[in-house]
Write a sequence for this structure.
């Protein structure tokens, strides 16, 4: 059933002018309502999840956002060409661009969002603060007037008192923002904030705010329609941030008095009414810890990334409400009919190195599996490529519980159960952050991350070492599909780690390298177990099962690792921490060094790989230890040397050959002296 056919402004089809998780999420509601969905995509997203989720998809240009998702002409002509009734902008990109709203309306397309006028008024932090002041909503003490003279701004900064925060009026996403602690740094910071604002938003004007040392970020969800209704859907707390961008969000806000709640709702609704707000929007506030006076920060005239926490505590589908409002219908519930229940927390999982100041990373997701019991809003799947062109948000995990501890419990479980391989993400950091007492107690401010992890975040050592050890076992184990009895009884058959003596277990030394460091490890394949020694720890694994599953026997409880051997690295994950470990043997595998023993004069392939070089020819004399050939496996180079002095008797491979582990590659006829030994 199509929901809005008989509305004042019928919506039968929606073009979603966005990508990633939000495009998929908007389409989900459209599908439920029987609305046809049209995706747009850049060349970088031709195979993206949002493209395949849509009923139809239109290419709109090259990978850089300016050449595609921000190109108004391309988006509008895609919408017209596909016969869309409406355009949903998602968040970011064109969502808060009043010119785009007007262009849509001029082209006869319904913009699923507020009026161009509201977008325009609230798009300027300076203008929105003036409106707030007009309706009696307190703002952060500061300067937000027209004059942009350096002299005026400096005088105002001194009046406000340092530290001050310089902000781009047109800003968003924390860009164009500078904290200044001392007057001597002001002029320089001002110049760079203005330059950044000019480059990012085409508008260099700034405002000044008193820098609040230890604030909470609170915000109120508003929803309005074109019939004059406006309601709030309670508050969210988004205090956990990195680089002024949200990381964890929840609803309702913990440890808030009813008095502050009332102030927040009243302020948000006054502002919304003042501008006849007619869609979903969010009014943001900041409140110093210990204070009961929230200050208005800005209003976002779109759907927020964190809208799902509100949806889970109110059972309202905010995208549906946006569509209802855009179709000219009245919102289905009045204020007193909206009741919150329980508690919801969202974790943003981004492709970033939490241990390196949240530096974004790129790459390919090789495997992903989502847990049950939480809501997942995702724009990725196995095979998704994460490029530098767009933001680093991959997916959001949202947990709901009867109360805050229940929601925390569920989110920690969800983050521990999800596996995502192939690219560094913030998953394990988020899991650890939520477990912190300060967060559990509801006392997080925007300084939470620095306070909870004063040395920076890093995975806990025991956990990290278990993953590294498992990576060694996975590296040495037979490839998937090749069930190798050698793991059960090492002397029945040879395997990748050469087992040549019935009296001793096979042993190999490995060098490991991953995001968190490098180290040496020793692997011993025993009759019934595999032992790994690394970083002063000894870990014992059960032999890998036929399906490749790996489990630590001690010191652990048999929980399984997820393993994937990829070109160049072993990708491994357990309990929410994932790692890509480059494993390299440190000893020459064809020489014994007293560890791997040779009883024959053959050189065997130490592992499945490609012969990259032959150093010898048939009949050539070689000295013990001289390089004979080179193999490449997992992009690592292994040089195999002559086990004895002698003559090359047979060459059973050529450069370029792919050979299985244990294949006989070269045979050496030992010289007489060697034979006598
Ligand atoms: P943007 O639009 O770039 O996201 P906001 O004004 O919404 O900028 O602020 C983003 C975040 O920056 C806030 O959530 C808060 O953590 C921090 N912030 C903003 N203003 C202040 C202030 N006056 N003092 C301290 N921190 C602030």
């Amino acid at each position: 059933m199509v929901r809005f056919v008989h509305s004042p402004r019928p919506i039968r089809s929606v073009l979603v002018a966005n990508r990633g998780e939000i495009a998929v999420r908007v389409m989900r509601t459209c599908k439920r309502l029987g609305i046809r969905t049209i995706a747009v995509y850049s060349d970088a997203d031709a195979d993206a999840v949002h493209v395949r989720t849509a009923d139809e998809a239109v290419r709109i240009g090259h990978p850089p956002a300016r050449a595609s998702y921000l190109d108004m002409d391309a988006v509008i002509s895609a919408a017209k060409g596909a016969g869309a009734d409406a355009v949903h902008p998602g968040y970011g990109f064109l969502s808060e661009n009043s010119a785009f709203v007007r262009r849509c309306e001029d082209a006869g397309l319904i913009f699923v969002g507020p009026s161009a006028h509201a977008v325009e008024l609230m798009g300027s932090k300076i203008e929105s603060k003036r409106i707030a002041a007009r309706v009696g909503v307190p703002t952060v003490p500061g300067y937000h007037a027209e004059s942009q003279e350096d002299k005026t701004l400096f005088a105002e900064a001194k009046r406000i008192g340092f530290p001050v925060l310089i902000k781009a009026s047109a800003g968003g996403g924390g860009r164009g923002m500078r904290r200044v602690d001392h007057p001597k740094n002001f002029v320089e910071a001002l110049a760079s904030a203005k330059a950044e604002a000019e480059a990012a938003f085409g508008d260099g004007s700034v405002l000044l705010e008193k820098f609040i040392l230890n604030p909470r970020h609170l915000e109120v969800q508003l929803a309005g329609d074109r019939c004059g209704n406006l309601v709030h859907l309670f508050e969210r707390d988004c205090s956990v941030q990195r680089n002024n961008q949200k990381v964890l969000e929840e609803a309702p806000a913990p440890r808030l008095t009813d008095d502050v709640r009332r102030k927040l709702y009243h302020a948000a609704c006054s502002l919304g009414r003042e501008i006849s707000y007619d869609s979903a929007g969010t009014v943001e506030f900041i409140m110093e810890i210990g204070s009961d006076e929230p200050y208005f920060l800005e209003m976002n005239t779109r759907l927020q990334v964190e809208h799902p926490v509100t949806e889970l505590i109110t059972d309202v589908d905010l995208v549906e409400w946006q569509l209802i409002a855009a179709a000219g219908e009245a919102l289905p519930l009045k204020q007193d009919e909206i009741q919150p229940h329980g508690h919801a927390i969202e974790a943003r999982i981004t492709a970033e190195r939490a241990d390196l100041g949240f530096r974004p990373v790129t790459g390919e997701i090789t495997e992903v599996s989502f847990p049950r019991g939480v809501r997942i809003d995702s724009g990725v799947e196995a095979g998704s490529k994460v490029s530098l062109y767009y933001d680093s948000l991959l997916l959001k995990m949202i947990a709901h519980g009867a109360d805050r501890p229940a929601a925390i419990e569920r989110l920690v479980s969800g983050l521990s159960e999800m596996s995502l391989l192939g690219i560094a993400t913030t998953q394990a950091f988020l899991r650890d952050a939520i477990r912190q007492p300060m967060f559990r107690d509801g006392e997080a401010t925007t300084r939470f991350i620095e306070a909870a992890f004063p040395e920076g975040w890093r995975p806990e050592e025991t956990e990290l070492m278990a993953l590294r050890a498992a990576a060694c076992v996975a590296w040495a184990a037979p490839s998937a599909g090749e069930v190798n009895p050698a793991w059960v009884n090492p002397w029945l058959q040879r395997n990748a780690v050469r087992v040549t003596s019935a009296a001793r277990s096979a042993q190999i030394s490995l060098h490991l390298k991953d995001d968190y460091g490098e180290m040496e490890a020793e692997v011993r394949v025993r009759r019934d177990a595999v032992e790994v020694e690394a970083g002063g720890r000894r870990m014992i694994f059960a032999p890998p099962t036929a399906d490749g599953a790996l489990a630590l026997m001690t010191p652990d409880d048999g929980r399984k690792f997820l393993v994937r051997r990829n070109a160049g690295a072993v990708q491994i994950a357990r309990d929410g921490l994932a790692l890509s470990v480059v494993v390299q043997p440190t000893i020459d595998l064809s020489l014994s060094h007293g560890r791997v023993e040779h009883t024959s004069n053959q050189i065997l392939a130490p592992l499945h790989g490609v012969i990259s070089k032959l150093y010898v020819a048939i009949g050539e004399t070689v000295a013990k230890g001289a390089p004979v050939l080179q193999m490449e496996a997992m992009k690592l180079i292994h040089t195999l040397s002559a086990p004895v002095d002698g003559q090359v008797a047979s060459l059973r491979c050529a450069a370029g050959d792919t050979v299985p582990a244990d294949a006989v590659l070269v045979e050496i006829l030992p010289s007489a002296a060697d034979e006598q030994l």
In short: The first strand starts at residue 13 and ends at 16. Residues 258-274 form the longest helix (17 residues). Residues 140, 165, 167, 171-174, 177, 209-212, 215, 217, 241, 244, 284, 286, 297-298, 446 surround adenosine-5'-diphosphate (CB under 6 Å). The mean pLDDT is 90.
